[in-house]
Amino acid sequence: MTGTGELTYRRIHHASRELLFDCMTTPEHLTHFWGPAGTSTPIDGIVIDLRPGGVFRTTMVNDADGSTHTMRAVYVEVRRPERLVWVEPDVEGGMRTTITFVALDDTRTEVITHQTNVPAAYLGPEARAGFSTSLDRFDAYLAHLTAHA
Questions:
Q1: Coil, helix or strand for 27?
Q2: Average pLDDT over residues 11-35
Q3: How far apart are CA 149 and CA 114, in angstroms?
């Protein structure tokens, strides 16, 4: 099957949008939660050049067998703390991810992740469940951060 689709994930996090934006754009934060359950993303496998045209690259390691998966993207828009947009040119169709940070109040932020040009392989229930586990990992990391702030 060929063709692409769209996905939207919404999650309310108990943190400011500034903190959430920083977590999504700083290797020292990303290493703690990037990727689905069963993977890790070592800090030396994260490259962030936070500007339009800059590189965003992560290399996830499968905890079970040590295999790796590298995501390569280019930032299209960087607007702290409202929005991040990147395109993955290596993915069929050039998958585009837009993350919008919406402040609900002083302590809660809704994060809306909208992806377009999503390949069919990423649209299945298993891939979507994996993405949800990465959001769960993000929640757990934020809870740890805010508890120790």
A1: helix
A2: 95
A3: 30
What sections of 11-113 are H helices per DSSP?
17-25, 27-30
Domains contained in the chain, number: 1
How many whole angstroms separate alpha carbon 59 and alpha carbon 42? 8
More confident residue, 31 or 147: 31
CA distances from 70 to 55, 56, 59 (A): 13, 10, 4
**CATH at 79:** 3.30.530.20
If you average pLDDT over residues 1-23, what whole number do you get?
Answer: 88
pLDDT of 1 higher than 50:
no
Judged by DSSP in three states, 146 sits in helix
Is 122 within 8 Å of 4 (Cβ atoms)?
no
Residue ranges making up the domain that contains 76: 4-147
